[in-house]
């Protein structure tokens, strides 16, 4: 039996939010941090503003929703290319929901809805372009790795 291939992903998350006294109190430090990777620009991040974060920075929940959307788009473009559907434009307005537990001390992402708006080269491609969205959760690495439902509400236009 052949060995499964593996891929590894290394990132550094560096806290930049020490305001002078470290974490000596819940309100005494910033949640600011950077997501770093070799040869890539840093991603300025924080926690959600609901959890004392900076609204001008990306938070982990947004980055998770973005990862779901990115993986869906990349697989979708691949499937379109291999199935004769010519995509000329693609934008997704993804939406994630986090549900807090009853104690208020924790929560989890409970759903992501992808709303891709896709333009295809010809009207004859719209039906196939629509149906290909249904195949992606089975192959998308991120969709296969999460425990919440991912739904798709695509709009297909001919250009």
UniProtKB/TrEMBL annotation:
Coiled coil: none annotated. Pfam families: OsmC (PF02566). InterPro entries: KH_dom-like_a/b, OsmC/Ohr_fam, OsmC/Ohrsf, OsmC_Ohr_Peroxiredoxin. Signal peptide: none annotated. It comes from the Bacteria. PANTHER family: OSMC_OHR FAMILY PROTEIN (PTHR42830:SF2), OSMOTICALLY INDUCIBLE FAMILY PROTEIN (PTHR42830). This is Organic hydroperoxide reductase OsmC/OhrA. It comes from Actinoallomurus bryophytorum.
